[in-house]
# Entry
Amino acid sequence: GESVGLHLPTLSVQEGDNSIINCAYSNSASDYFIWYKQESGKGPQFIIDIRSNMDKRQGQRVTVLLNKTVKHLSLQIAATQPGDSAVYFCAENPKEYGNKLVFGAGTILRVKS
Amino acid sequence: DTGVSQDPRHKITKRGQNVTFRCDPISEHNRLYWYRQTLGQGPEFLTYFQNEAQLEKSRLLSDRFSAERPKGSFSTLEIQRTEQGDSAMYLCASSAGTQNSPLHFGNGTRLTVT
# Structure
């Protein structure tokens, strides 16, 4: 089924520390995953994606880890900055859903200076 | 700015009125998506187009909602006889259309139905 949450968990980190945001996805048939960042009043902004044939992918200051055994996805942000404060969503693309993304509930990241 | 553009950014309307939103996707993208987002939740899929063809509609898209993409470029989403429950952020996204290509979102249209 589709993953839609009502309550957003919050992660508070000190500026300069590393952040880890977790996501449990729902569909074992999903073969593509994306992390988005959403700031207040704006649309989701693409951060990084990963295909199911990989378990790790790195970008600039970000790393996505995929554990298909337990259907878990994480986003690691190195040296977190105040500009990283936002809501972060993971999204999955279940094969049987065609070409649309199903979004998780989101996590609020607050960076303390 | 070559990203996805949506207009208007905000719309306040009275219950029962019709509203129409416009989306201009990234020019080389042939897939266009509409999503709806309410406070505290992730975006929910409404419908998507491959060029001018509407290929899928969610059960969330009641018969009061209609979307078009007549020339395979911009798209419109119309809501007829708006209800207070229609209040939400309506997001448009586009993608290149290749397998597993990311969706790029616009900044949405915030609809408030009074």
Confidence is low (pLDDT under 50) at residues 1-6 of chain A. The interface with chain B takes residues 2-8, 31-32, 34, 36, 41-46, 49, 51, 89, 91, 93, 98-106 of chain A (CB under 8 Å). Chain A has no helices and ten strands. The longest strand of chain A covers residues 30-38.
